[in-house]
Amino acid sequence: MEYSIGEFSKLTGLGIHTLRYYEQEGLIAPERNSCNRRCYSDKDLTWIEFIKRLKDTGMPIKEIKHYAELRAAGDSTLSERMEMLVQHRQALNEQIARLQEHKIKLDEKIEFYSNEIERVNNTNL
Amino acid sequence: MEYSIGEFSKLTGLGIHTLRYYEQEGLIAPERNSCNRRCYSDKDLTWIEFIKRLKDTGMPIKEIKHYAELRAAGDSTLSERMEMLVQHRQALNEQIARLQEHKIKLDEKIEFYSNEIERVNNTNL
DNA sequence: ATACAATGTAGAGTGAACTCTATGTCAAGA
DNA sequence: TCTTGACATAGAGTTCACTCTACATTGTAT
Q1: Closest-CA residue in chain B for A111?
Q2: β strands within A7-125, DSSP E
Q3: Is there a single domain that holds both residue A55 and residue A78?
Q4: Computed over its alpha carbons, how large is the radius of gyration of chain A?
Q5: pLDDT value at position A124?
Q6: Per-residue pLDDT tens over the stretch A43-87
Q7: E strand residue ranges, chain A
Q8: Nearest nucleotide to B21 by CA–C1' distance?
Q9: Contact B92 A113 (CB under 8 A)
């Protein structure tokens, strides 16, 4: 299947402007039809879903662009790409660990608040 | 203990400029000494560590500012503050869940890459 | 034929969170 | 006394990732 930018925007949940911006930044390079309209494929769809994943896990556009360039260069860059993903996984694991630590502290804080509110209520009897 | 902005910067790992910016944005309000220099206390230290936690878990400055205002208003805002934290905990839990989902997918992708590299190597024998 | 909706490009604008520059004050050491 | 370094304010500049505007073009419905 092929999609116009409008259709692709709906499929991906990314705005039309954002899709053009991503193209400009070198993240994605859809085909063009006879009259110069962008023509996104199912491969583009899979690819953009992966881009979203990288973005959501904190990879900056520049780095995704680099990954996209390696990808466009073909099989010879497979191990370099894997290396990037392994590094990114490492960063992601650390990020998750940090957030879990924060969650614990936040739970404690909320617990403290509970007691504090209780205390204040009793004091004001 | 009391700290100059330079000392406080080192203690917190936040730049001097950033500390002044946070003050301007209403996140923190250090005392001033006789000659108008900022004079951070240990309470400020605890507070800024909490601010960092909120920031690291994705709370925007505006919202932290709101929390700071409630905090400054005293005990009467305790339950409202707790409400904010409970909401934030909810967001944090969702964020962690999303990242864990992403991690699984990334693991799969890396596994796929492993196989692909293996395959390409064999093809090129 | 004409109107319209979607698309195209180029470039400006936005908002968040810093980060830096210019300029001035002031206490302490050589 | 002179210089140095840390501090002060006000405001400009930066980076990121969009998001929007202006204007031109084109395929489709009336």
Answers
A1: B82
A2: 31-32, 38-41
A3: no
A4: 23
A5: 80
A6: 999 999 999 999 999 999 999 999 999 999 999 999 999 999 999
A7: 2-3, 31-32, 38-41
A8: C18
A9: no
Which is nearest to A12 in space by CA: A63, A64, A71, A52? A52
Check whether residue B43 and residue B56 sit in a common domain.
yes
**Parent domain of B61:** 1-73
What is the rounded distance in angstroms from the CA atom of residue B125 to the CA atom of residue B122? 5
Average pLDDT, chain A: 96
From A97-106, B18-27, B52-61, B111-120, the region with the lowest mean pLDDT: B111-120
Whether A52 has its CB under 8 Å from any CB of chain B: the answer is no
**Nucleic strand C under 7 Å from the C-beta of A92:** no
Tokens of A111: 């617990």
Q: How far is the CA of B41 from the C1' of C30 (A)?
A: 33
Mean pLDDT on B83-98: 98
| Residues linked to residue B39 through DSSP beta bridges, in sequence order | B31
Q: Are residues B50 and B96 in the same domain?
A: no
pTM of the full structure:
0.93
Both tokens assigned to A24: 């400009």
